[in-house]
Amino acid sequence: xRIPKVLAIHDISCAGRxxxxxxxxxxxxxxxxAIPLPTAVLSNHLAFSHVSSLDFTPxxxxxxxxxxxxxxxxxxxxxxxLASPEQVYVVKExxxxxxxxxxxxxxxxxxxxxxxxxxxxxxMVEHMRHLIRRAHVIKPNYTEACFLAGVSCDKNVIPDxxxxxxxxxxxxxxxxxxxxxxxxxxxDTYCNISLDKRTGEKEIVSFPYIPFTTYGTGDIxxxxxMAGTLKNIxxxxxxxxxxxxxxxxxxxxxxAGTSPLEGILFxxxxxxxxxxxxxxxxxxx
Length: 285
Hints:
This protein is α/β, with parallel strands linked by helices. It has one domain: UDP-N-acetylmuramoyl-L-alanine:D-glutamate ligase. The chain is built from 9 helices and 12 strands. Strands 1, 2, 3, 4, 5, 6, 9, 10, 11 and 12 form a 10-stranded mixed beta sheet that branches. Strands 7-8 form a two-stranded antiparallel sheet. It is globular and about 55 Å long. It starts with a strand and ends with a helix.
């Protein structure tokens, strides 16, 4: 049985369960081989007090050149946190080299809770607007969706249906499949929403807020969506799987009482994820 290969363009945060240290095992559990193209190597994710980092931009093109010489190809491309606007051009180059007919997923990992991540700014938003046009699937969170659409984002204001539909319509102009995550919907309630323009299917999944802020959640969610895309699981179904799995993992992590900086305790749940994805594939064959 052939294992699909995904080119995973993300940073490596060595401590803290985020980015590639999460993405590689989650994709593996879903039956996908992830080949990393690092955007940066960090001692730990950015929420820690002290960070040592290496910008990997000077090496990214040479890695792709070596893969070309070795005849390595991919079945999908999945990009996330980019260390600089310059790396947007590297991702575009990767899509040009390997894209063809394979699915491309962009997670515009640059902001959350109404504000930018450290090192990100409006310049990255403008570059990201161009990059998502090359994608088949995009998965911004609510803050990123607002920034991309050029609308205000107050984390304390509940968006109405008109605002959500506008975000979906705007982002749907760039790509055929959209998921927006972590949309505030009321007191202690959030939702994820998907739109598949190919089928016209729109899905909303609500979930309760868990008062436990941690890291790597978006990486887990997006990795499941990427796997579902490669395995031809409908977008709405994949979103439901990712939402339920992540909710259960957050609950278990909060109960364990570990430091939020350590990220999601997902390792023991990977066999369960494998079974869930296998059932979903069998149900759609």
